[in-house]
Amino acid sequence: MEWRLLTQRYLTAREAAERLGISLPTLYAYVSRGLIRSEPLDEGRRTRRYLAEDVQKLADRKAHAADPARAAEAALHWGTPIMESAITLIDEDRLYYRGWDAAQLADTRDFEEVAALIWTGEFDGARLFDQPTACAAVPDRPDNFPLIHRFQIALAAGAAADLAAFDLRPEAVARTGGRIVRCLAAEAAGQLHSAGIASSLAESWCGGDPATRKLINAALILCADHELNASSFTARVVASAEANPYAVVIAGMSALTGFRHGGFTEQVERLLRSIEQAKQIRAALEDRLRQGETIPGFGHRLYPNGDPRAIALLERLAALKPEAPTVALVDALVAEVDSLLDLHPTLDLALAAISLALDLPRGAALAIFALGRTAGWIGHAIEQYAEGRLIRPRARYTGPPPG
Predict the structure, then answer these.
(1) Per the structure, how many domains does the chain have?
(2) Burial class of 316 by CB neighbour count within 10 A (0 to 12, 13 to 18, 19+)
(3) 197-206 vs 210-222: helix axis angle to the nearest 10?
(4) Distance between alpha carbon 107 and the CA centroid of its chain, in Å?
(5) Structure pTM?
(6) What is the pLDDT of residue 2?
(7) Which of 37, 243, 287, 388 is in the most buried spot, having the most CB atoms within 10 Å?
(8) 127 and 182 in a common domain
């Protein structure tokens, strides 16, 4: 039942009552009190279905009351939120930044404006990004390294040179965030020009086509934040120790490179490269499944009906490159996985598809992810600095007894 609650949006009355350990009349009483939302299953019938999210929240509350220690432990593993944030809301298969639909922002705003929104609540990005970076003088960059590792080297050098980064007041951190993002963008593009970060990347990677610039801008925006994922939680822990924003971003980026997080994009790229023609898709999937492997790039626990970030980016890519072999391959792969497993594409698949279809440099998919997500890490740092408390969970000792 626990697994189903994470993958189903609705439960039957009997399933909901079983999960809560209550009778059906008690379930109906909870509904009448507004604790659980329900809706008709079919028009004209009395049968109703119950929102799994509400059932889970009520179950979590009951568990916390009965055993606070156990509830706190579960909260660290896709449990109920363990801290408050005003940055991102994930609701009904939609993603919102400070109340603004992220997919709409990707159509109407520049990445710098959305970063400013996350950091300050306003779209005024010009004053935060019109600054020199502290990374320009780093000698002997290893250009053959993947971009994500060059990012980490540039951040370490910038942290040593940028004394203003030790000012942890909200406005000062937002300005440091602007310098950090520009530092990373300069590392990826080689140089920045006045048209902005997405334009600089498009110019360096693809020749500066305006439509390509819009797609890269949208990808940066849709990567900007995703609530308390592993990298953002890591960033908040580091910020709670009052490390400066460079250290926060280095920590978040380190978590992002893991294969259970942003590093998934590289697995997706390998899968796409291994399937040269659409007719090989079924065989490739069968081979992975028979070996007990998952299909990378599909099935997000928070989006049972599809990751809105992937939907938005794959639609934009198909419109930009309708004849690209990668687009046809991804379309066929999505259809096959849906038929076999009833799973939908995630952001990782969309980023890998963009990288291959546009023939971007090695590691560009993860670099876009990291550059975009830096906006979120800085936003979480600002919130955590203001909180003024150290994040310090306790451990339940399971080792041998003393002596």
Answers:
(1) 2
(2) buried
(3) 120
(4) 18
(5) 0.82
(6) 38
(7) 243
(8) yes
